[in-house]
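Supplementary Note 3. Input sequence used for the single-chain structure prediction.
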Amino acid sequence: MTNIRLTSGTSSILDLCRAAAASEVVVAHSSHILGADRVKISGGFGVTIFFLLSGYLISLSISNRLYTHLPQFSSFIADRISRIYTPLIPALIFVVIVNQFWVSGHWGLPGISTGPVSFLATLTLLSDYPAIQAIHHFRDLSAVYPRPYNTAEPFWTVAIEFWIYIFVGLSVFWLFKGERVRKWLAVVMLLISAPVVIWNSFAGGGECLSLVWGLGCLFFLLHRSIHRFTSANAPLIGGIMACYGLACLLARAFSGSLHPYDLATAFFIGCSLFGIALVVENWRFPPWLTTIVGLLAAYSYSLYLVHNTVLILIKEHSGLGEQANVILALALSHIVACLFYMLFERHYRQVALLLRPRIARLVAPSLEQQELASTLKGDKRVPNFGE
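The predicted structure, written as discrete structure tokens, is reproduced below.
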């Protein structure tokens, strides 16, 4: 089977959704942090869209990797680490510096949200770990509960997503495909990642984000099946999906039951989003429009990482009014995010190229993997795999 590639129309609509989701989170947090609660917006809708898109695109990547002759687990992990950490590490350093010198308040949830423990927990994406969350339900663990570092509170979703990557990668490449992985390393990664996936299927900050991510996978499989068996009817099927999803979302909104983290709501959002993607997959948008949408989507992850800290800086130091603060917050968040993208995030493919041979040697230092590491080190191209 050949690699599955997104068409220009599909890429554009998914980029638009990613950019809109990031901006929705910023607007929602602005309304709460800066006191503009007259506009009731939940950042959960943006998070739900992020997880749907992630499940779809990672499934696309894994599907393409399954039909290559080389082992793929190590390169998959290297690519995921580089994608998550290339902007996260500088963003966390930015957060710590700002909190140390310019933020005086406590903005995290009850627990350890400052100091070296919180820093290391946030860096390793182990803050809000499920075992502690579970015990905390029965006994107050605030004194030892590691939270994301103060103004980096939104990082909790990144931790969930990262460990879903690890769990899915192990499940597909090690357990299903039978690739060679050091057993002790596989067991350790499985023991850390599995509780995150299980806990966030029924609890956690988003109540069921693992299942929302899984919905994204199912929509990818649906798209693949449509293209395989009835490609000519894809726009019609997509139109039906989109109309159904939008109608159900409107009905929920009018009935007052539109909750962003509800699994049914996530399903209706997915029907709308991926249905529209089928409708427009063969459309050709103006080049200027795809360029703008692509740019907004490109720095959306950086925007998610830095916006909360920027908002709190404005909250504590701006002497402007409520409306002016919101406008300033939106503008400054995008400016800082663009800088982070230019300085750090856009280089994640180069970071992946450096990590691949090293991760390959760590995962399974057999002769086969050593040859793979040598091959990856000499290959100057980093395949996109639809991500």
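The CA atoms of residues 357 and 374 lie 7 Å apart. Confidence is low (pLDDT under 50) at residues 378-386.
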